[in-house]
């Protein structure tokens, strides 16, 4: 089958190969940071599916991340579910939450959509606090170390080991990248772009725009939840912070910095922002001021994000 | 045989009724021109047929199938394509992507796209270019080509030659003539009298949301008073 965008496919393959090689040159601490970046990049890629490709700006994506965190984490903590099963449960829960939420919130658009998604996310956040005897609330719950290993097809995976965590995160990141490549660079990708540009015109061509937006919303929410489930199981901790407003904003920032509507933009945005915050927070307690100034600079000189601007000015295939 | 039948179509903008029982019929391979002064209801008639403005009364059939009340997204799938006034392209998408969206509507194959590009050969050199960067004439051609890619049985055109250079107008007219020869029924809203007289088979004159007269093109050519009476133009 002919690829829709062979140059982008090659670039994605090169990026994955480079990420695989990275673990052999980075220090233990940086491998841990890279693992976190890969998991959060999946979250940002999910967000990008909705905001970048379909043009819907959500302020409540932490809700889906939290659905994954709590479904996977609580089932492992209370029922002792094996990690693969807990992970599948986390992904399934976020799929269900995004489907039900999508059917409700997609009746709104633009600012109303932002407000409604924010309200749903705040309800989720407050629910995690209200039932703190189960969820652990702000304090959170730590998953027992003994429950953080599993065997899959004869391979023993120990999630307390950095290399295992990194390679598992890389495998899921690669699968997400491949899935999104197929979804966004093919026929359906054109429909998302058409809805982003003008839903009315898309409908006039005979397409059910509600269905298209629902598909984008559910894919986006499910990927966010998958990222959440992975984060909880990898690092063995669940807490209300994962349902907080700040996390929704992080997904937005990662996407904006990297380039909305570009496949690799969220990875770049997540990497740049995470490393920047990590480094700056070690230098000054006022690191958020510096981060803010850099965001303004990106907005001024690269308004479509780093890769988005490169796409607009030089490389149109970088989408 | 009648391809599309519109009977007693009524439509409102809020509380104001703008269409008062519009009736039209179109045969396959026929070009029906809809003429009238500004505000007569021509564009509203097209929008009501397409379902983007929900009619409050009347009936629309396509080859005997009742389309009345179908959601707007179902109308193109049934076989009616619309080129609205002002082109309405996806300006961030390339020419190729715009055409591909047309093909996806009814699952037409790429031969349909080739036929559309044969009508507008200038687009062949622009396939990778963003639609928003095309000239006005090229955008009009792309809008028509995209509608042709739907594989329509009826094509609604709303002032496709508006603001175009004479060479582009000639290309659009030639495309309409070719569609007619291929058996597509065309409902054309047009202000340019010479275009109407050249490509039209019949002319329906609209006034205040009603069809006032419907004449074969030969009668319109023979009686310039018709154009003066309903459109305020002399040939």
Automatic annotation (TrEMBL), chain A:
Keyword annotations: Cell membrane, Membrane, Transmembrane, Transmembrane helix
Any one Pfam family match given in the protein's UniProt record, by short name: BPD_transp_2
Bilayer-spanning residue ranges: 37-55, 62-79, 85-106, 111-131, 166-183, 214-239, 251-277, 284-302
Molecular function, one GO term: branched-chain amino acid transmembrane transporter activity
Gene Ontology cellular component annotations, sorted alphabetically: plasma membrane
Cellular compartments annotated: Cell membrane
Membrane disposition: Multi-pass membrane protein
Chief place of localization: membrane
The keyword Membrane belongs to this UniProt entry's keyword annotation: yes
PANTHER family: ABC TRANSPORTER ATP-BINDING PROTEIN (PTHR30482:SF17), HIGH-AFFINITY BRANCHED-CHAIN AMINO ACID TRANSPORT SYSTEM PERMEASE (PTHR30482)
Protein name, per record: Branched-chain amino acid ABC transporter permease
From TrEMBL, chain B:
Annotated SMART domains: AAA
GO biological process, one term: L-amino acid transport
Keywords tagged on the record: Amino-acid transport, ATP-binding, Nucleotide-binding, Transport
SUPFAM superfamilies associated with the record: P-loop containing nucleoside triphosphate hydrolases
Molecular-function GO term, any one: branched-chain amino acid transmembrane transporter activity
Family annotation (Pfam families): ABC_tran
Domain ABC transporter: 4-233
Keyword Hydrolase assigned: no
Record-linked InterPro entries: AAA+_ATPase (IPR003593), ABC_transporter-like_ATP-bd (IPR003439), ABC_transporter-like_CS (IPR017871), BCAA_Transport_ATP-bd_LivF (IPR052156), P-loop_NTPase (IPR027417)
Family affiliation: Belongs to the ABC transporter superfamily.
Stated name of the protein: ABC transporter ATP-binding protein
Species of the source: Mesobaculum littorinae
